[in-house]
Amino acid sequence: xxxxxxxxxxxxxxxxxxxxxxxxxxxxxxxxxxxxxxxxxxxxxxxxxxxxxxxxxxxxxxxxxxxxxxxxxxxxxxxxxxxxxxxxxxxxxxxxxxxxxxxxxxxxxxxxxxxxxxxxxxxxxxxxxxxxxxxxxxxxxxxxxxxxxxxxxxxxxxxxxxxxxxxxxxxxxxxxxxxxxxxxxxxxxxxxxxxxxxxxxxxxxxxxxxxxxxxxxxxxxxxxxxxxxxxxxxxxxxxxxxxxxxxxxxxxxxxxxxxxxxxxxxxxxxxxxxxxxxxxxxxxxxxxxxxxxxxxxxxxxxxxxxxxxxxxxxxxxxxxxxxxxxxxxxxxxxxx
Length: 336
Description:
The protein is an alpha/beta fold.
């Protein structure tokens, strides 16, 4: 009898494990619940952060202040709310024969299939990667309002191959485009209603991805870099990033920067895909001049768009975070 029960459990356990997956596709592996390990509950996460904060901090007062800031930014009540409302997975997916890390989240309950947003992160390499804290702060609030969100960490983050590294708008754009193939296999996703948005470098990534696959109904960029040549005038230290990431940068600098600058092909942008541009006027990382210049080019070329500038706000829209979230949600609810 015990043997029969054991065999039955072994037989159904793979089916049960698959039922927990949010994407059913042969090229998806290692789907893992975001709310697991140290993120299984708020106190576990907080304890791990306390250890992390303690390493560079000697004073108990400083440590207490750091943990207070952490609690104010996140908090157990908000953590528990998202854990009860959001299904979230990290996973790996195949691009050009190798695996790239990605993430996916959606409301746990929805009466109908939900529109999908492909999110393009900022930063480069490990800097700016989407960790649990950035999910909770930047993505869960959007997903909770009725969207499936899927995104890429870009190649190289968890792959040591020197031939498979983040090229800052090079072959890594394929990592974004590949996500389209998996959307039909996401539970509860409406593959006919897809939008895309990106922040900072993710704005550039959004426009480059749309050049390869324009099966979207609307896009949005937050503090997007639209002209990498002029950007060097605004922020000269970006040259180091470009030199380290972009293949053959020294030999083909002008060409490679132009290829990544949507301002140079604004006349070829689709008039069927509306674009939302969001920027803070006091952005020290990506000048607001980027979004202003693109808005002017979009107007000239009759591309439907909306420009929203938040006075005195920074790169992260710290002052108008909630307002910018609602602007984004309203945009995609209108167009998807």
